[in-house]
Amino acid sequence: MVGFDDAALVGLIMALVQLAKETGLSARFAPLLALVLGIGAGVFLVFPGDYVQGVWAGIVMGLSAIGLYSGPKNVFKKSGNSYTVTVNVDKEKVEEVAKELIRQEMIKGDGEQ
């Protein structure tokens, strides 16, 4: 089972992948490197005597490192010196909630302040 100490290895894997990218590794190979490092950590550090468990733990750690890096990257887009947040919302649902709030007089409608 992957525990707290193993979660620290996920951060280490992320740092090593970022270091490799800064020293010339193509970004498209970063997930593969994270998996390789995760499997290596699983086999040699987490479950040194059990290769099957080590590989599974390593896959979990590698995929976690990939997800922790790509998740925020997909939400926050950098443009110049600032970041923008991309949020997908259902326009009809937002309008429905706004109409209900106006109906309950929680907010003023038609541009009233």
The quaternary structure here is single chain
The residue fraction in helices comes out at 55-70%
Structural class assignment: mainly alpha
User: Reading side by side through the largest sheet, how are the strands ordered?
Assistant: 1-2
Question: pLDDT below 50 for ≥5 consecutive residues: which ranges?
Answer: none
Largest sheet: 2 strands, antiparallel
Folded structure, characterized:
The chain has 113 residues and is mostly helical. It has a domain at 4-75. Helix content is 65%, strand content 7%. It has helices at 4-22, 30-46, 51-75, 91-103; strands at residues 76-79, 82-85. A two-stranded antiparallel ribbon has the order 1-2. It is elongated and about 65 Å long. The relative contact order is 0.11. The model has no long low-confidence stretch (mean pLDDT 81).
Keywords:
mainly alpha; 113 residues
Quick structural gist:
By secondary structure, this protein is mostly helical. It is 65% helix and 7% strand. The protein has helices spanning 4-22, 30-46, 51-75, 91-103; strands spanning 76-79, 82-85.
List the helices and strands and how they pair.
Blueprint: H1 4-22, H2 30-46, H3 51-75, E1 76-79, E2 82-85, H4 91-103
Antiparallel strand pairs: 1-2
